[in-house]
Amino acid sequence: MARTKEFDPEAALQSALELFWRRGYEATSVTDLVEHLGIGRASLYATFGSKHELYLKAMDRYAEMRDPILLAELSQPGPTLPAVRAVVRRFAAEAASPQGRQNGCFVTNTAAELAPHDPAAARRVEISWEHLETPLHSALVRAQAQGELPEDRDPRALARMLLVLMQGIRIVGKASNDPARVRDAAEQALALLD
């Protein structure tokens, strides 16, 4: 007879996400995961596979948490540029917050730590960036159609510029003691939308 799990796999995955987010992949050992999740090593492997598989599942969970919020913010009816500005400003505020300074962005952290040599992590980073760029692009196309964005602006190029800015904001916000640095950068980029 199979034993029933004595822990909640969803709660354990969320806990692993938080640990990986705070410490990174390399700095988190299997022993750290076992202690943090409060489960046995065998249970960890049986439920999630390897440390690497658990990390990828944590990345997927992070995307599940973040992507719908962004899509909802950028697909509201009515004027579009205020929503784009609000998203960029929220990224800047989060980057400068105490939690942002401590953890940064899980995707940006992964891009810097693993993407150069880990194809599975790199693929998830690319997917995450597409899930940011695509709604930004759609919102900017709508803004242009509604007369909010000048006709001579390229919505795709602007969406990509905002994506790169927002990811850069996450890195600078994590490393800088000066919150004005990310706020000023965000405002300068948003001025390009006028």
From TrEMBL:
<keyword id="KW-0804">Transcription</keyword>
<dbReference type="InterPro" id="IPR036271">
    <property type="entry name" value="Tet_transcr_reg_TetR-rel_C_sf"/>
</dbReference>
<protein>
    <submittedName>
        <fullName>TetR/AcrR family transcriptional regulator</fullName>
    </submittedName>
</protein>
<feature type="domain" description="HTH tetR-type">
    <location>
        <begin position="6"/>
        <end position="66"/>
    </location>
</feature>
<keyword id="KW-0805">Transcription regulation</keyword>
<dbReference type="InterPro" id="IPR001647">
    <property type="entry name" value="HTH_TetR"/>
</dbReference>
<dbReference type="InterPro" id="IPR009057">
    <property type="entry name" value="Homeodomain-like_sf"/>
</dbReference>
<dbReference type="Pfam" id="PF16925">
    <property type="entry name" value="TetR_C_13"/>
</dbReference>
<dbReference type="Pfam" id="PF00440">
    <property type="entry name" value="TetR_N"/>
</dbReference>
<keyword id="KW-0238">DNA-binding</keyword>
<dbReference type="InterPro" id="IPR011075">
    <property type="entry name" value="TetR_C"/>
</dbReference>
<feature type="DNA-binding region" description="H-T-H motif">
    <location>
        <begin position="29"/>
        <end position="48"/>
    </location>
</feature>
